[in-house]
Amino acid sequence: MTMAGQTINDRLLAARHSLAGQGLAKSVCKATTEECIGPKKKHLDYLVHCTNEPNVSIPHLANLLIERSQNANWVVVYKSLITTHHLMAYGNERFMQYLASSNSTFNLSSFLDKGTVQDGGMGVPGGRMGYDMSPFIRRYAKYLNEKSLSYRAMAFDFCKVKRGKEEGSLRSMNAEKLLKTLPVLQAQLDALLEFDCQSNDLSNGVINMSFMLLFRDLIRLFACYNDGIINLLEKYFDMNKKHARDALDLYKKFLVRMDRVGEFLKVAENVGIDKGDIPDLTKAPSSLLDALEQHLATLEGRKVSAANTPTQSSSNQRNVKSAVSALSSTSSAFGTAAASSKFDTTNGIDEQLKAQVLAEEEAAMNQYKSKVSSPTSSGATGANAALTNPFLSSPPAAQAGQPIVDLFGAASAQPAAAAAATKASDDLLQLGNPFADMFEGGAAAVGATGFNGASVSSAAATNAFVSDSNFSSVFGNTEPAGNDGDGTAKYDGAGSSPFDWGATDDDGGAAQ
């Protein structure tokens, strides 16, 4: 039973991770559901983002994916491999480094899903039976393991190195290092070509997604491989006997792999990839192989017909130049395809979708700028903006008859004169209304009604704090009558306020 494409097992597992606060495990679970489609882009993008976060444990993420690959369901296993491959290609290099440095590999050499065979192949709606998909899972896991081993041996990813004549890593490598690097590259390419699928095998979204990732790697691997062979041919006639023998063996293997790459590209064309996006393979002339073998025979001291003659040497040079020219065109074609945005969505971001989103955002920003650029423009929008904008240099027409309150400017002369005429009792401890003079009529209105809605006298309404009579009754005169002249206040029997200088004791005596 499924819910919105996902099985109940998927929902329960995701809910369990949510309750446990395991957000990373939940994301891995979402990317590797039992639904017979490729992992969703939003889940892959989130996991790619996690590889770039310093507080995310890369070993924990890798182990979660390896754990999911031990599932009995072929869909879950296959999608865990796809997710791992995607993180290798687009995630932070720390992920690749961990897989290369640890012993955590995919042990799926004997994987076989018999569940869909036992239930008549109906375990996955619309999908192939797990029995038929199991061989591709075993081959795919082998390639990912080989990709990690290549990184461990070389400390770089062949799919991400620089390519081309000027800056290509394998194009500018010295002969001794090149002879050690090409076998590692050949082993990874062999593991990829052993996937060996046909057009009729690509019948569901899961295997289709893995094929596209393999196609992307193939373009980059062979472009790098081709650069190495060109460099090898240019240095061949200057090598010693041992290096020349190894180089000739590498070139023979290269010719075999070129034919297998051509078969892979035909499958890619049959499954719907645009023919213009598939690079052309240009083979070197067959006469070059004869020239290489004759040169090696000369170095080994074997007898060959017309060997090491000036005519033969010039012929060898011509063959090498023609072969380098042919392979250079292949390198250019594969390099262009490798740089295509259709097969290089770094960090999982589709460049076309990115451009569309940026265009929509720019249009929305321009529309917003057009609304706020002229707040005093005619129309309802401009009028409302003018009425509510406190930073306009001149008052709007609707408020021309009302006074303007400048909170940040200098005080006017009239409020200053009024402030000078007030008494200390008007604003004791500055507890009065500081805006009474500024708002004038508005402050009087508030004073007339009181802040609690009660009516007060007109005399109290004109005073910001309290009347003079009330002030004198509470605090007494400025100079009390009972002052003897020596500065000591004595009880005069007239005060009834506890604030008066003369206060009585409980027993009727004077307070000294």
Helix content: 55-70%
Rg calculated over all Cα atoms: 44 Å
Largest sheet: 2 strands, antiparallel
Beta-strand proportion: under 5%
Which descriptor suits the 3D outline? extended
Question: SS-based structural class?
Answer: mainly alpha
Cα(first) to Cα(last) distance is 96 Å
Mean pLDDT: 74
Low-confidence stretches: 118-128, 345-351, 377-381, 441-454, 458-462, 481-485, 487-491, 493-498, 500-504, 508-512
Give me the number of helical elements.
20
Q: How is the largest sheet built, in terms of strand order?
A: 1-2
Helix-strand sequence: EEHHHHHHHHHHHHHHHHHHHH
The count of DSSP E runs of length 2 or more, i.e. the number of strands, is 2
Task: Write up this protein.
The protein is 56% helix and 1% strand. It is built from 20 helices and two strands. A hairpin with a 2-residue loop joins strand 1 and strand 2 (6-7). Helix 5 runs parallel beside helix 8 (130-154) and helix 5 (74-90) packs across helix 10 (205-236).
Summary, kept brief:
With 512 residues, this protein is mostly helical. The chain has helices spanning 8-19, 23-31, 41-51, 58-68, 74-90, 93-101, 115-118, 130-154, 175-193, 205-236, 241-270, 287-300, 310-338, 351-372, 380-388, 413-421, 436-439, 441-449, 458-462, 468-475, and strands at 2-3, 6-7. It is built from 20 helices and two strands.
